[in-house]
Amino acid sequence: MEVIVAVPLAEPAIPGSGSLRTAAALDRLELVAPPVAAALTALASTRPELAAQARVTAIDPDLADTEDMTAAFGMDLALSSNCILVAGKRAGEERVAACVVRATTNADVNHAVKKLLDVRKASFWPQDRAVEASGMEYGGITPVGVPDAWRLLIDARCATGWSCIGSGLRRSKLFVPGELLAALPRAEVVEGLAVPA
């Protein structure tokens, strides 16, 4: 008797992802930082249909920077979104925001972010503080799993379509739909958070 073995179909490539192939992030939580794994697991309990769409891929840590990754895998630069940490002070209180913007744009720190944080001056957060406070590696910081005390500002361009974002580690990347980013705890979708690069 002939035995027929069903072969699972390969996941279709995410548009613009070049030669990269991904796996379901919930099945490969070892590829993401602990705060990211906790956030994806929490999302799976409330919005399983969204959490199931998160994808992950392992990469060489030396290719973690957006430009290097784009060139190495033939990716569309517009697919990548960066998580920029910005801070300012008001009445002695430090206010921190994780700002998610497309790689083809720059966070409008001096206008939009400063106004949203209601501070006189906003600047990029120092690398050592960002790593310590987030529990993530520099170059891998992601909006998924940021600390509760931070504002999470999502540029409206990132709230639609796919984004390639950090995984909390330099050795992998997450791919998530805009609906997932917008559904993250405390996420605020902001028109004009970024300006063209």
Structure, described:
This protein has 197 residues and is an alpha+beta fold. It has a single domain, classed as YbaK protein (Alpha-Beta Complex), CATH 3.90.960.10. Helix content is 24%, strand content 28%. The protein is built from six helices and eleven strands. A five-stranded mixed beta sheet has the order 6-3-4-7-10. The chain starts with 22 loop residues before the first strand and ends with a strand. The model is unreliable at 1-10 (pLDDT under 50). Residues 61-179 form the YbaK/aminoacyl-tRNA synthetase-associated domain. It comes from Schaalia naturae. InterPro entries: YbaK/aa-tRNA-synt-asso_dom_sf, YbaK/aa-tRNA-synth-assoc-dom. It holds the Pfam family tRNA_edit.
In short:
The protein has 197 residues and is of the alpha+beta class. It has helices spanning 34-46, 48-51, 66-73, 109-117, 127-134, 178-183; strands at 23-24, 55-58, 81-90, 93-102, 105-107, 122-124, 151-155, 162-166, 172-177, 187-190, 194-196. It has a single domain, classed as Alpha-Beta Complex (YbaK protein), CATH 3.90.960.10.
